[in-house]
Amino acid sequence: MKKRLAILMALGMVASSLAGCGGSDNPAPAAPETESTSDSTDADAAEETEDTAASDDEESSDAETAGNEITSTELSVLYSGTPEIHEKEYLMDEYFANFEEEYGVTINVDFVAQADAITKIQTEQESGNIVSDIIFADTANMAPYVNGGWMQDITAIVDGTGSTYTQMFDETTNKDGKRYFVPNSFDVYVLIANVKALDYLPDGLTEEDVVAGITWEQYADWAVAIAEGEGVGKTMMPANLTSSQLLYPMAGMSIAYGGDFPEFTSDGFKNAMGIIAEIAAGDGFYAEQDQYTAVTEPMDSGDVWLAFSHMAPAGTSYNAAPNNFVIGAAPSGSKGVGSTSGAWCYGIQNGAPHADLAQAFIEYVARPEVNYDFCSNYGGALSPIAEVGDILSDEDVVMQAGINILGTATVRGVPSTEYSDWNAVKLLYGDIFNEILTTKEVPSDDFLSGKQAELEALYIAE
Questions:
Q1: Model's pTM, two decimal places?
Q2: Is the bond into 443 cis (omega within 30 degrees of 0)?
């Protein structure tokens, strides 16, 4: 098994400089540099680290109990967002169940929509009737929890775990030098294609080119060729505007051409929208894409053959049937590869009735082997913990693809805290996308300027 600790250590530190909440224009060092670092890792030292970690794990529960006596017998987790069926089964049957077994307790999990989770915690805080202990939230929806003062400072707890976390999301998870959430997974965007689509690759391109990374122009030609050959569009964007994810691939495309995120009037954004318009004009899009916020289901059914997707949904399809799909790097534009990145995180609510067990849970999810298992079962999402690199092997195809992108792409974080209503920002991208689908052209400057004005009205002035 080829160890990857040095890769994640290097990329974690690089990522902290380029993909904080506001992002950066500076790409990370090229992948070969990070690869050479990993080759210098001492295998014997890595094995010794594994042995030490195993010993530490055997003693961890007793040590936690001795240092902080746990008297609670149940834990309430508010899990914002709605995981896929297979993800929920994993969470309940393994992830949470393993914690329950180790500590002899019960975890009560409440799966709710992100907006409903914010409302629930606000109500608990304002009423003083605190029910939820642990909150699972994404960086795009984290501002109300942190700015509202609803969360416990978990800086010492996280520092005490001994795990090395990436700093790339600190601008969102932390405030005034204190940590309120700890990242559990994150991802970037990758290309996923059904192997049947390879028959329609533009002249001169091979599967190896797809893996290494094609251009957006080649992607558009490929999408149109598939539609012409199959008589139906088989390329998709996550176009459902309920809990919309559409802005993220659109933003990644824009960044690849030098555009910013979010914004609608730069030449880079317009050039990126030209790619979408070309696919639309060639009837390349899947007719029912507006029913989906992720590619997994239509990819699995064969209705979609090509997509630019979050790693986790793409990885879920790939890992279920690796012989049916190809995972490739994000396509490049005139300014290289672009992607957005957000994280899912855990925190402890202020006033948690089972704070002792909540602390033990934060320590549990910080264990590298627990985190690796979670990321693997979530399609190959990226781990925010550097030590997970000791566990990775070349068989972790989706994770490796994400790591390679981190090493070469311009990656932007999600600046949701800078806007009064992030969902309203999402809907503006939806308006632009639907305008392109209707006209099959890049929207007029007047149309884009109008959307830019709506965007700026949502910006929170300092």
A1: 0.76
A2: no
